[in-house]
Amino acid sequence: MRCAKCRHSWFQDGPEIDVPAGASGEDAGNAQATPTRPAPSSTEPVADGSGDAQPQPTSPVADEDSVADIPPIPDVADTPAATPHRDEVRAPAAAPADFGDPPASAFDHEPPFRPRRNWLKIWTWAAGIFAIVAAGLIFAVSYWGLPDWVPVERPTFAAGQPGLQLDFPPDQQERRTLPNGTEFFGASGTITNIGTTTRDIPTILIVLRDSRDRIVHSWEVPPPQRTLAPGASVSVSEAVTDIPRSAREVQIGWKPE
Q: Is 181 left (phi over 0), alpha (psi -120 to 50) or beta?
């Protein structure tokens, strides 16, 4: 085949021919090429009433040899399709050849340099993130306090309460050994509201230390009442037993929150 426009030539397979079952290729070709022959006609004289014999046509009858020579007419369904006219032939579009990606060329366009990093923008983002994290940590420590696993020395007592005064004279602190050998300690004192407004009384903490200033025992003392009017005072007395014999000093203050 050849394209009339671009003069491109290619090979085109023709349509397939269906051959009837039981017939070889040569017989199928003879079936199409051999025309059927009409049977010879004959006339026979027939006598009429006048006594003249008139020839009468008879139906054509083929002899046995002629019938045997006539091949069977193939079925229309088995007849191969007619070949289209050359003007109606349309060549399929040829698929473009795939030769893979072309090799990289040293003359391909590339940017002259890589973009520079904006260090000012990077440091600005880093400073902002650090400020947010630091503010979150400060808020968490101020609200919940430091966790126990942090190796930081923590204050034993809370800061002084404005308007509240603790008074535990040393001569009112008693320590002795009971007859059964148990160590006894008793603490007595007062809490006074020296302010002008009613104040809430927090919990009291009593700490015993040894000669090396180490805490050997501590306990909490709830106040006798939770609020205290201006100028009022309340007495506090607390006693415990089974304290360590190494205790040498007592400290009394407000329990840290």
A: left
| Calpha distance 82→32 (Å, rounded) | 13
The listed range with the strongest mean pLDDT (13-17, 26-30, 160-164, 202-206) is 202-206
| Nearest partner of 218 among 243, 245, 192, 186, judged by Cα | 243
Helix, coil or strand: residue 24 = coil
- Distance (Å, whole) CA 62 – CA 38: 8
241 backbone dihedrals φ, ψ, rounded to 5°: -125, 175
pTM reported for the whole predicted model = 0.42
Which tens digit of pLDDT belongs to each residue from 155-167?
788 888 888 998 9
Domains belonging to the chain, first-starting first, are 1-35+57-94 (no CATH), 164-254 (2.60.40.10)
